[in-house]
Amino acid sequence: MSGSVSEERVEAAQKSLALLRAEIERRVIGQRSLVVESIVALLARGNVLIEGPPGLGKTLLVRVLSEALDLEFSRIQFTPDLMPADITGSQTLVQDERNVPRLEFRRGPIFANIVLADEVNRATPKTQSALLEAMQERAVTIGGARLALPAPFIVAATQNPIEMEGTYPLPEAQLDRFLLKLDVRFPSIEDLREIGLRTTGNDESATQIVIDRTTLIGLQDLTREIVVAPHVLDFAAHLTIATHPDAKNASDSIRRFVRYGASPRAMQALILAGRAHALVHGRAWVGEDDIRSVALPVLRHRMIPTFDARLEGVTNDKLIQELVARAPSLQATGS
Amino acid sequence: MQLSIRTPITRWARASNRRRIAEELIIALTWVGISLVVGAGLIRACELIIALGWASSDTWPSKTAQWAFTIWATGWVAKIAVTRGIWRYRKRRTRPRDFARFLDRRHRTHDLFETAMAVESSHAVGAEGLRSAILTRARERLAALSHPVVEPFREPQRTIAGIGLAAALVGLLPASAPGASVEPDHPQTEATQPIDVRAARMVEHAEWLSGFGRGPSLAPDARLLIGHAEQQLRTIGASRGHGLSQLTKAERALRSLRTRLHSGGLLDPVGLQAANTSTLMHELADALAHEHTDAAQPLAAELLQRLDTVDVEELASAAGLALGGPTRLEPGRLDRVLEQLQNRNVGAASVELHALSEDLAARPSPTSLSQTVEDALADLHDYRIERLAHANRPLPEHNDPVAPADGSIGRSTPSSERSSSDGRSSESRRSHGGDAGVSRIDRDTRRNPAESTVFASEQVPIPLDAIPSAEVRLVQRAEQGQRDSKDYQARYEHYRTVAESAMRSEEIPVTRRDYVRRYFQAIGGQAVGGRTP
């Protein structure tokens, strides 16, 4: 009986997520994989780092996601003079009805379900740290008081890879806290025509709410119940270790172009994102294909390239694709 | 009771493994088959090479040895193939989990079966309800599957096709040269027996030459020639594995010796005069004992010249010492010389010795050495013919080309089968005895070497009351000198062409070709300058 109930839950989740996906894709045109990956991050309760040139719909994606989920959305435009208090909020002196002054905490924009940290690399490391602490802890400490952030809580940070002057690139340790790093690709010509058609008239319809907050939390819980078999865990572990240049079965390209490989947190991220990916596709179990599908966004910001890699233009994406392609042999040889 | 996921998957995995074992076994057997086919092909190629005359069967491993090697090599191939099969099976063996993975790949079930097996063995993590759902779904999918085949028999199919092709190619390989008929294989013992006998005969000739060559009064060049001929004959006798080239070498050595023999005496006049009387007497006795006629005659003449000058007692003593045994030539003559010497009757002794010398000189030529040389040449030729026959080479059909003009139609026969004119075989002409086992040759048989070869004819009986055939009448008329007819010329040309062809194909020894050509010149018509043979 419980089996059938659970199966119905998975089927219902798949339907809801399909609706969510369709609704987002209706507004954000030509970014199908980006939509799926952002839903995966949402289900896994992970934060995402979205990188892409301006004008490709990064902010729109996050806003539409919050609208479709009926979640509170806030946007923080990161600038070099942005202070941590501007994000978390601060205590201000106010007078009550009896004109007695008192300190009152005014919440910053971090107190929202979906926070868009626009151009996160333009703020100083101090400010970035404040945001990243909130991302990790899902709480902020102000004036000695620890305040929990609302659930669900997701930070979507964006980066512009073109304008690097006057920026503060995120340290590797902080990058690791993002579950996924999403790469926004330029849409195809057909998608561009569609964008031109839909977004320049008066009839642009509002986003429909397809999943409420409670359902979303239920889906997030269900994600963590998805079954993972040992062979999938082995696969994820081998894939993680294979990113290390000092691993036994590391390929020549990994040895040459990777300075540091992915951390154990990457392994956790692979499993978690794999579970979410399986649920998006209506499966109650994780397969190796799910791990393969999420390997790129999970690992691409967790591998530190060598100078040779930068010099020769070898990207982490290329290395990961190579790893995934030879994944069966990874398990056969062990690490 | 719920259906287990592992049970059918394990069963199918075992079935797949059994199939793989069968596949590897077929592959191993196929390799063995390929090895046998290749071996058979090589043996067949050997037969073809021998049939084409590119090699002699004497210098080639026997068929038994070839098959033994093939079987030995096949055994090794089998060992390697079986080891390879075991290794491959261990590598390809399917475990239940691998089979579940195979099913997932084939049916695009995204690791459903593998996960279900893990759930069943409580190794998977996740919500209990979801685990049950996975098992339910896996059972449903599994029930819809028929027994899947892991891999078809691709490799055995390829190898079996390969072996079939190879066998077909081997089957197409001709076992004999075009136009040549290969005799069926003879048992090894039958094939080697005549050759061994011939080889022993070569040794006999070598022994005889060795005895002859020990004489101290021989000319140095004659001694060298005798020694060389003896060595060549011994080489043939020592190992029958020598090819035809060794026979040719021995034949050349004997021909050189014969030429030297015909050009002059073998004894050295200077050495003969320098030798002392007792040595001469001893050599004379030895030559008479061994029937060395051509050596005995000059010795007797030299002793005769010395009778007037030497001490009679010393000569009698030497003669007494020399005559230790019976002499086969002129028995009693030397005894009578000795008797006269002991009686100090030098005149009578001189008369006896003179008579002995005259008798030896009067003996019809050829002398004993030349007879031995001719016999050895004849035996060499027979030996060559037998070796060619042993090598599956067809014996030359000499019946027509060498037909004598005396009305008989001849064919060639091996010397062991044919008879000489006096009805005695070549073997019967040899008598064994005397000292040190040295064979001796019966002096009664004096043959022209040309007549003692394969060209000796066989008489075709023609009943007196029967009408002779046109062929016989043609030959009979030719015998009477009527050789200008077109029929005779056509027949003659046909015979001569066949003989020339046989000579060109090396079936006639070099030493005999001149005889054949002279013969055909002799029996040719006026148009070709023929004369009565």
Task: Describe what you observe in this structure.
The complex is a heterodimer of chains A (335) and B (533). Chain A has 335 residues and is an alpha/beta fold. Chain A is 48% helix and 16% strand. Chain A is built from 15 helices and 13 strands. In chain A, strand 6 (139-142) and strand 7 form a beta hairpin. In chain A, helix 1 (2-27) crosses helix 2 and helix 9 crosses helix 11 (264-280). Chain B is built from 19 helices and 2 strands. Chain B is an all-alpha fold. In chain B, 63% of the residues lie in helices and 1% in strands. In chain B, helix 9 (244-263) runs antiparallel to helix 16. The chains are: A alpha/beta (335), B mainly alpha (533). The A-B interface holds A 2-7, 9-10, 225-232, 278, 283-290 and B 97, 101, 104, 110-112, 114-115, 118-119, 123-137.
Indicate the structural class of chain A.
alpha/beta
Largest sheet of chain A: 5 strands, parallel
Low-pLDDT parts of chain B are 177-193, 392-460, 528-533
Strand arrangement in the largest pleated sheet of chain B? 1-2
Largest sheet, spatial ordering of strands of chain A:
2-5-8-1-9
Radius of gyration of chain B: 42 Å
User: Uncertain regions of chain A: pLDDT < 50 for 5+ in a row?
Assistant: none
Through-space gap between termini of chain A: 42 Å
Mean pLDDT of chain B: 70
Give me the number of helical elements of chain A: 15
| Terminus-to-terminus distance of chain B | 113 Å
